[in-house]
Amino acid sequence: MPDTPRLQVQCNAPIGSLRIDAEFTTTHPWTVLFGPSGSGKSSLLRFVAGLWQPKESRVLLDANDITATPAYKRKIALVAQQPALFPHMTVRQNIAFGGERNNTEAMGQALELFALNALADANPATLSGGERQRVAIGRALASNPRLLLLDEVFTGMHRAQRDTLMQQIRTHCAARNIAVLAVTHDLPEALDADEVIRIEAGLITSQGTPHEVLAEERSAWLRSVISMTEKL
């Protein structure tokens, strides 16, 4: 199997009141960009996706410089926290829109993978938040990207629901050699990643395995879980 697509990012630019000065290279299939709200995580995803193009910054995918490549030609799919589905289209039509033209196989796989067959003819307005997110992710994967960007897509989901959806995405992406860069400030989600890149106030402060980068937070979280269990 080919190596996992490698993403290289160098971004040095102001955005609002924040200045992002970040440089990193992903080395694993599932990488999490971890940090508090307002640290620049989502802005970096938009830069990688081609939706924000600051000067004196570069993004490479598989050693190919795609800085000047239009977003729709990058083979990168972005899923935001709030699913941007087409309200006048059914679930099936939304997913088909993301896929390659007339690629019914990709659409069928997405419907099957995320248990959306029963909802295929439904309107997005009738779906729950979790269902809409599954449609958005299915649409993104139907485009057969090299890199999938996830911006807080599991926020608000129950742990079991999140774990199931994450495993579905992992299985699909591993089979098709799609790399994932996910943004979160949720510790349990970050601990499930292959690699964590910590960002604070626009600066990359550490990169490594979840246990290396998040050792202090993990210890504090485990203590709180044990304390809560003892009180039951």
Key words describing this protein structure:
232 residues, Rossmann fold, 4-stranded antiparallel β-sheet, 10 strands
SSE map:
Layout: E1 7-15, E2 18-25, E3 30-34, H1 41-49, E4 58-61, E5 64-65, E6 76-79, H2 91-98, H3 104-113, H4 129-142, E7 147-151, H5 159-176, E8 179-184, H6 187-191, E9 195-200, E10 203-208, H7 210-213, H8 215-231
Parallel strand pairs: 3-8, 3-9, 6-7, 7-8
Antiparallel strand pairs: 1-2, 1-4, 4-5, 9-10
Helix pairs in contact: 2-4, 3-4
Characterization of this structure:
The longest helix has 18 residues, at 159-176. The protein folds into 2 domains: 7-75 and 145-231, Rossmann fold; 84-143, no CATH class. The mean pLDDT is 91. The protein has helices at residues 41-49, 91-98, 104-113, 129-142, 159-176, 187-191, 210-213, 215-231, and strands at 7-15, 18-25, 30-34, 58-61, 64-65, 76-79, 147-151, 179-184, 195-200, 203-208. It has 232 residues and is α/β, with parallel strands linked by helices.
